[in-house]
Amino acid sequence: MTHSASSCLLFLSLLMRCVTDSSSLFLPDSKELLRLLSRYEQEADHSGVSSTAGNRTRRAILWSDREEILQLHNKLRGSVYPTASNMEYMVWDDELERSATHWAEECQWDHGPQDLLMSIGQNLAVHWGRYRSPAFHVQAWYDEVKDYTYPYPQECNPWCPDRCSGPMCTHYTQLVWATTSRVGCAVHVCPRMNVWGETWENAVYLVCNYSPKGNWIGEAPYQHGRPCSQCPPSFGGGCRDNLCYKDSQRSETEDMNEVEKPQVPLSPRTTSKPSPRPPRKPATKPSAPKTATPRTSSPKTPNNPYLAHNIKCETRLRDKCKGATCNRHNCPANCLNTKGKVWGTVSYDVQSSICRAAIHSGVIDNNGGLVDVTRTDKLPFFVRSTKNGVESLSKYKPGNSFTVVKVEEYNADCYTTVREICPYRRPSSHCPRIICPASCKTQPSYWSPVVGNNIYADSSSICKSAIHAGVIKADGGFVDVLPLERRKSYAGVLKNGIQSESQSNTDGGSFRMFAVKV
């Protein structure tokens, strides 16, 4: 009787703990458990991964599990209620999968590692007994929605209230966090795992890592509205299954990188110009490694303080400087009847007038305005047409080409980041002209971080970084932003009353700030 009573109490204790934590608990079934373990071990052997290492079982996540996890995430994100106007399509990320694998292999029933949790979100689940697919746990995370009440804008003054009436809702909110666009998960079978003080044998541990991280205190997980009506400009108006989507959007996987290997030899062409710089750096690094970066970058600012270039109606693209800082141009008025020639339609020959090509494409009218230029591949020929009062010419010779788009204005807040609205994409990316509000200087770094100096991590607050860079003052104003590739490290300095952070080995891209001529 005593043994039976103690067993019953242990069972009830486990059930109560299951209610108060994020894992899933299932009673053991020896046949199902053996089937589960053999499934994972066979897959590991098939993929060439050793099934044992020390006292742990190693395995990579099954391709079928991975696809199921990703598809279910996007299905659930596209079906939230109330509807989301800025929910982004999610893709698989191999780096997040690797970090999830490393943590899952630790077999610790806790979030971690701590140094990584500052930059990623994380959901955990564990079970033993009969087989449960990873998607089962993903659905369980989403089902926390039954205890969650969405905070509408009128309730956020300025911070949104926490409306969770159950034990936990953070798995749901991370899963549907609008700006979280990448996920990577791992499943690991732990021979012995301490779960709530009990030792579970052959526990199946699921770890999913997310980036950019969500669950920011005081914020709603997404903006309510018509689906895709408030997507970041970088998505170009694309929408799929109620999610902001780019036609070129694909999961960043090793398989995809293998397909792209033929393009790798092209990359040295884009990096050949900076190549003379590295020999200068070793001479300065031994004495002052941190001050070397500002010294090499500071001369650029006086020579090129503006991203937008004032040009004439006749200015051709081939007449302008090359590089990422030469892609934004301010066209004057009355270019409609000038003599600048235009070759092509939609894509234009580089000998074309930039401003008249912009009028031809409908990007601007005869009043002029800002345009962004994207250099594109060499085309075999260019076709004539008459549009918006400009007659373009035909050219049946191959030539380098370009396209033009209008520069929009974006009303940012103190928390807006480049990663959210216009992350770096090859061959080049364009950001809208940013309108910064006042009072961003006093925002806490937890909400509005600034990482770097002169060149900033794309997770930084745009407007607070602009104050740090001296592009605007504390009362706000207009700034231009240039997205750049990822940097290995960023050095923090105190400048203009703001202390920026130092970071290394960060994910995402970077950006530079430019003043706007008033």
TrEMBL record:
Stretch list, region Disordered: 250-307
Keyword Repeat tagged: yes
GO cellular component: extracellular region
Compositional bias segments (type: Low complexity): 284-301
Keywords: Disulfide bond, Repeat, Secreted, Signal
Composition skew (Basic and acidic residues), residue ranges: 250-261
Record-given protein name: Cysteine rich secretory protein LCCL domain containing 2
Species whose genome carries this gene: Poecilia latipinna (sailfin molly)
Native organism taxonomy: Eukaryota, Metazoa, Chordata, Craniata, Vertebrata
